[in-house]
Amino acid sequence: MLLWSALTLLAAALTLAARWGLRRRDGLGRPRPFPTVSVVSLALVGAALLVPVVRHHRLEQRLDAVATDLVGAPVQVRCQTAGQEFVDAGAELGYVRYGAGGVPEHATLIKRAQCTALADYLGSDKADPGRDEVVAVHVLTHEAMHMAGETAEAVAECRAVQRDARTAELLGATREQARRLAEAYVRNVLPQMPEEYLTPDCVAGGALDERLAPSPWSAGAS
């Protein structure tokens, strides 16, 4: 919606300028003044509306790159727009649609609040992320696991907690900052997840422990 509004206003500014260029004199041969106020106003408002559109696109491109690295194949991350949020009744923080035969698509939609938190995390020094930022980084990782082909929520969740540190590093965190973020999710968020996201095998030394480094089970996080 913002994009179309911006393009409409910019097109209107160009149209006014072009009409003046084609008819610089009125019916009596007098010079017609250039519609400076109208053209500049339309152009400025149109350009202002384009700013959030460009930011949205750049964020999606950054998240595309991160998720592609995690999946090992080209994937797309789309951030929910304000219009989509207005009509959204779902409680999930992100989702991947399943195609024919129940195979997850290589595309995901991340809800607007989580994309906002991801943008905040990207713009921060990564030293002390809030709970919303920790959760948002994990949501991106979790949906990447679905795009990689995992359909079971508990397994996708366990694979994700072991890759949250990698996601954080790809988003600009240092290795130590990334490790702390992964541990924070396992310690403070994972135990509160719905039952379908939990499995007793998702612990240090458990059947689903991939022994990746850095480990989210470090420093007593379990």
Could you outline the blueprint of secondary structure elements for this entry?
Layout: H1 2-22, H2 36-71, E1 76-79, H3 82-86, E2 94-95, E3 107-110, H4 112-122, H5 131-147, H6 153-161, H7 164-170, H8 175-189
Parallel strand pairs: 1-3
Antiparallel strand pairs: 2-3
Compact summary:
This protein is mostly helical and 222 residues long. The chain has helices spanning 2-22, 36-71, 82-86, 112-122, 131-147, 153-161, 164-170, 175-189, and strands at residues 76-79, 94-95, 107-110. It contains 8 helices and 3 strands; from the N terminus they run ααβαββααααα.
Key terms for this structure?
222 residues; mainly alpha; 3-stranded mixed sheet; elongated
